[in-house]
Write a structure and sequence with these properties.
4 helices; mainly alpha; 0% strand; RNA polymerase subunit sigma-70
Length: 58
């Protein structure tokens, strides 16, 4: 069976996604750059972009 990023998002709970507190992420998202968000939450830049994209869609 093939796995994709879209499939992974579908099967994860929202709270398990990247192990990030979404409320805190959304507060800091407006003021911080992607690089600062990545270092603040221990993510890669790609993960920050994926997370922003996922939050924008929901």
């Amino acid at each position: 069976m093939r796995n994709s990023a879209k499939g992974e998002f579908a099967h994860r709970k929202a709270s398990e996604l990247f192990h990030v507190d979404f409320h805190e992420f959304m507060r800091k998202e407006a003021d911080y750059t992607n690089y600062e968000l990545a270092s603040e939450f221990g993510l890669t830049l790609r993960d920050v972009r994926k997370l922003k994209k996922q939050l924008f869609r929901s």
